[in-house]
């Protein structure tokens, strides 16, 4: 399977173009780093790939077919700030079970303790909360994962544990992963190839 972004152009309102004729592609089981200076549109492209934003022109396809807007999106985006990505009025068990309850095995691999399931989001640290957001995105229905500065806010040990689990899961389920990060050593360590967004424009 291949996720393709073809000739994507995008701007917010009538402002300057953030993305202009951008081409980007990732295959199943591939881990691709996406880098560029701050403000160059990495997050915007991630949102377009995951269907949060519609491009002004161009298209996003999987194996040539446009992605259905209804139902579970096969491209899942993980944000830098997990506290913005969960419903503060839901306990963690409900947050997790929104699509389907992950296996005990996956919860353990992600370092999620049983007792955390009965807490509110505000009762968890950023690192603990991010483990939930990552786990939630690792559904059987996920084909591609966009990790947007997913572990930037976390300490080195938590970062390593989360990446180990995610990359192991992605390998097993042949999920394609896009790693958006400023952290060049991280990209070099985990990616099959690294793409600079500034080189993606036509
Ligand atoms: N909702 C928005 N409305 C207007 N401008 C935005 C919005 N979101 C981002 N931008 C602008 O778009 C540009 C690209 O942002 P972003 O995609 O977040 O870049 P990056 O992730 O590479 O730092 C920035 O100049 C940012 O200020
Ligand atoms: Mg960003």
Number of helices: 6
In CATH terms, what is the architecture? Answer: 3-Layer(aba) Sandwich
Proportion of residues in helical segments: 25-40%
How are helices and strands ordered from N to C?
EEEHEEEHHHEHEHE
Radius of gyration: 17 Å
Bound molecules: adenosine-5'-diphosphate, magnesium ion
Average pLDDT confidence is 95
Total domain count: 1
Low-pLDDT stretches are none
User: What multimeric state do the chains show?
Assistant: single chain
Shape: globular
CATH third-level topology: Rossmann fold
Say which CATH homologous superfamily is assigned. P-loop containing nucleotide triphosphate hydrolases
SS strand fraction: 15-25%
Number of E strands: 9
Please report the first level of CATH classification, the CATH class.
Alpha Beta
Structure report:
With 202 residues, the protein is of the alpha/beta class. It has one domain: P-loop containing nucleotide triphosphate hydrolases (Rossmann fold, 3-Layer(aba) Sandwich), CATH 3.40.50. Helices cover 28% and strands 24% of the residues. It has six helices and nine strands; from the N terminus they run E-E-E-H-E-E-E-H-H-H-E-H-E-H-E. A five-stranded parallel β-sheet has the order 6-7-8-3-9, with helices on both faces. Strands 2-1-4-5 form a four-stranded antiparallel β-sheet, covered by helices on one side. The longest helix is centred in the C-terminal third of the chain and has 18 residues. The chain is globular. The structure holds adenosine-5'-diphosphate (ADP) and magnesium ion (MG). Adenosine-5'-diphosphate binds next to helix 1.
């Amino acid at each position: 399977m291949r996720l393709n972004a073809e000739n994507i152009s995008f701007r917010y309102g009538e402002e300057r173009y953030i993305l202009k004729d951008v081409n980007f592609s990732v295959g199943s089981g591939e881990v691709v780093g996406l880098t560029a200076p701050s403000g160059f549109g990495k997050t915007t492209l991630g949102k377009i790939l995951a269907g949060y934003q519609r491009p002004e022109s161009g298209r996003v396809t999987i194996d040539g077919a446009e992605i259905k807007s209804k139902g579970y999106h096969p491209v899942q985006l993980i944000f830098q700030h997990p506290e913005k990505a969960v419903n503060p009025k839901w306990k963690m068990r409900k947050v997790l079970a929104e699509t389907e309850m992950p296996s005990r095995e996956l919860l353990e691999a992600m370092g999620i303790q049983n007792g955390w399931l009965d807490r509110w989001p505000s009762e968890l640290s950023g690192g603990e909360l991010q483990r939930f957001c990552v786990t939630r995105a690792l559904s059987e229905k996920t084909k591609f994962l966009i990790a947007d500065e997913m572990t930037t806010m976390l300490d080195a040990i938590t970062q390593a544990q989360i990446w180990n689990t995610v990359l192991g899961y992605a390998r097993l389920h042949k999920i394609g992963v896009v790693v958006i990060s400023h952290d060049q050593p991280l990209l070099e360590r985990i990616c099959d190839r690294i793409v600079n967004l500034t080189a993606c424009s036509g």
